[in-house]
Write a structure and sequence with these properties.
Helix content: 25-40%
CATH class of the largest domain: Alpha Beta
CATH superfamily of the largest domain: Ribonuclease Z/Hydroxyacylglutathione hydrolase-like
Shape: globular
Strand order of the largest sheet: 6-5-4-3-2-1-22
Strand content: 15-25%
Structural class: alpha/beta
Number of helices: 15
CATH topology of the largest domain: Metallo-beta-lactamase, Chain A
Length: 485
């Protein structure tokens, strides 16, 4: 893929001073997008999809709240679609400037944006078949594979810890966020009314107990800091306890003769699960002899992890990086299901298999088919190991729903549902407070993003109690003045 630096759009006269306007992930987790205006420039920080059912789809298709042709640059923290997945639509609407990201993020975007575009085209095709039968007008996909390819052409790599002037009076530095491969804390130095100001966006901060990535780096000296709050109300269970819960679920499924279905996010969570399952296998604690990774995107992402083994911690390099020829060397039972035919063949297995499939919130991808075939079986087990947004089938399962709707059918929930919090790739409450506490000199103004209201309230209370700092949740559409502390 060619990575070119697109020419910046000509500067126009804009509002004086410096401002940050949240356009998503305000009082909710998904749809990350913030408009930064400073020094006559407009920069989009993140460009993510809303996730969580039909209402989220409508928001993704709604009129953009900025003119793409008037944006000078886009800066990404990482490749997850709730941070990057709206990019092809913005490019389709006229954006032609640079998209800055770490090299590993760009490699993951090649996998994720192409896959997302393919799904958009497929879903539009299926919907249009129904519309034709009903005599209704056809719809267009949110974006196409061609739009994704055009987006990838705009990507400009920026390495960790290398300050990069992306516009006049605007410098970008990335720090390792430890969330997924290539994820970054975004550190922007801008000039407002002739004065230097530093804006830091945490992105998604990683859980220090995950096995493959380095711990998140702290950043000192910010004037304004945006801090994620996905799990702002609690800490995760210790990883040792979580692994025991996973082992118990595997043993129970083996005893009942049922399959284990694991809805997993393709990037980050899947690679962590493969490592943990391989560890249990080597300890003689994994009775299942068949493990299927049924997600072409997760398979491709796992290969990207191995190509960027320099970003993994010591354990990660040994298990998924330089030390092994393939993940199957660590987990011999593992089989990749890349084609639709290979995926469909899995559901002919009566029991005794572990099936890891996308999507992580059960609202798309191949996991829906596996749930449709297994949820109603009392011997089956479902392992939920990641955040579930409101309105998704995964959230319904976690909340104890007795029936869920999948692929146009209502399915009874008789399988055992296991919710494992320790595998989260997000930092828990105590870690967030420690991370914020290391940012001093000066003490920044804190704004909470990427969290549901009750979680943000809990985190704000804990920060006030432990650190004596005020932390204010952002409000969608409400501008925040950026000024030196």
């Amino acid at each position: 893929m060619s990575r070119r630096r697109a020419a910046p759009i000509a500067r126009t006269r804009r509002r004086r001073g410096a401002w940050l306007t949240p356009l998503g992930a305000a009082g909710e987790v998904t749809g990350s997008c913030y408009l930064l205006e400073a020094g006559g420039h407009r920069v989009l920080l993140e460009c993510g999809l809303f996730q969580g059912g039909y209402a989220a789809e409508r928001r993704n298709a709604a009129a953009l709240r900025f003119d793409p042709a008037d944006i000078d640059a886009i800066v990404l923290s990482h490749a997850h679609l709730d941070h990057s997945g709206l990019l092809p639509r913005v490019v389709r609407a006229g954006y032609s400037g640079p998209v800055y990201a770490t090299p590993a993020t760009i490699d993951l975007l090649q996998v994720m944006l192409r896959d997302a575009a393919h799904l958009q085209e497929r879903d539009a095709e299926w919907e249009n078949k129904r519309r034709r039968r009903a005599g209704r007008d056809p719809i267009e996909p949110l974006y196409t594979v061609a739009d994704a390819e055009a987006t990838l052409e705009l990507c400009v790599p920026v390495d960790y810890h290398r300050p990069t002037a992306i516009l006049d009076d605007l410098t970008l530095t990335y720090h390792d966020a430890g969330h997924i491969l290539g994820s970054a804390v975004v550190d922007l130095r801008v000039v407002a009314e002739g004065r230097p100001v530093r804006v830091v966006f945490s992105g998604d901060l990683g859980n220090a107990e995950t096995a493959l990535l380095r711990d998140p780096e702290s950043v000192d000296g910010a004037d304004l800091m945006l801090v994620e709050s996905t799990y702002g109300d609690r800490d995760h269970r210790p990883i040792g306890e979580t692994i025991e819960e996973l082992a118990e679920a595997l043993a129970a499924a083996a005893a009942s003769g049922g399959n284990v279905i694991v809805p997993a996010f393709a990037v980050g969570r899947t690679q962590e699960l493969l490592y943990r399952l391989g560890t249990l296998h080597r300890q003689g604690r994994m009775p299942q002899q068949r493990v299927f990774l049924d997600s072409p995107m997760a398979i491709a992402a796992t290969r990207v992890y191995r190509r960027h083994s320099e970003l993994l911690d010591a354990a990660g390099r040994e298990r998924l990086g330089d030390g092994l020829g393939s993940p199957q060397d660590w987990l011999p039972q593992l089989r990749f299901a890349e084609t639709p035919e290979e995926s469909m063949a899995i559901n002919k297995i009566s029991g005794g298999a572990v099936v890891i499939a996308g999507s992580g919130m059960c609202n798309g991808g191949r996991v829906r088919h596996h749930l449709k075939y297994n949820l109603w079986r009392r011997e089956a087990h479902v392992v939920i190991c990641g955040f579930q947004a409101a309105g998704t089938p995964g959230r319904a399962l976690v909340d104890g729903a007795r029936k869920v709707r999948l692929l146009g059918a209502e399915i009874a929930v008789r399988a055992a549902i296991h919710t494992l919090g320790g595998f989260s790739a997000h930092m828990g409450q105590s870690g967030l407070v420690r991370w914020v506490g290391r940012a001093h000199d000066p003490t920044p103004r804190l704004h909470l993003v990427h969290g549901e209201p009750e979680k943000q309230a809990a985190l704000a209370e804990r920060i006030a109690r432990d650190l004596g700092h005020a932390a204010t949740p952002v409000v969608e559409g409400k501008r925040i003045a950026i000024e030196p502390v």
